[in-house]
Design a protein that fits this description.
single chain; 220 residues; 7-stranded mixed beta sheet; alpha/beta; binds S-adenosylmethionine
Length: 220
Amino acid sequence: MTTLDTAPVAPILDNLFAEAKAAEPAMRQAIAALSPEDRRASQSAEGYRAFYSRAKDFPLPVSRETGNLLYMLARSANARNIVEFGTSFGISTLYLAAALRDNGGGRLITTEFEPSKIARARATFTDAGLSDLIEIRDGDAAETLSRDLPAAIDLVLMDGAKGLYPKILSLLEPRLRQGALILADNANWSPDYLARVRSPAQGYMSLAIGEDMELSMRIG
Ligand SMILES: C[S@@+](CC[C@H](N)C(=O)[O-])C[C@H]1O[C@@H](n2cnc3c(N)ncnc32)[C@H](O)[C@@H]1O
């Protein structure tokens, strides 16, 4: 058994996924109400803040499958230092922190700018008994990830504003260890990011997985 399959983490994840499912109709309605300009702006490098502020009550989580993949990648890489762009309610964070616990410890830096989500995620991490492994950086990740990073990052989850993926990658890149893994959700929204991680000349090997994810590895 793993930390994922046992209490308190397992029932907390069950509750969070149930809540996410119940929120789906309202979320779909909210997305349908967006104008084409709003949609484009939501993922641009400039217009994301307003979009995520409107989505502050929605968890927008990774799927259980993606969560399991994150857990397996972190265990397999024996990750000790993980960075996450986009905490939301903390579902993916729980998977990653559970892997750190089962690896024997480590540090997970996660980033969120919506105050209500931060408060909620913090309480969840305490209830899950994982808060000793998690540092929540409060504010825009483009700023909060510009300093105090671990010397060697093993694993990254990209799941915040898609237009910022290239910028966040640039901030983390000097600290990515050789063989570091980066999972990017909804990567198709960020063509510049995809072009970069699909370029061995720029130091990455990469492949699309699932519906809209990209798994990349730092080779240099
Ligand atoms: C798709 S959700 C993350 C879901 C989370 N990874 C999970 O699976 O539970 C994206 C989150 O990133 C946050 N976010 C987006 N851009 C951000 C930024 N530039 N800095 C900090 N947080 C950001 C949003 O507020 C939102 O809560």
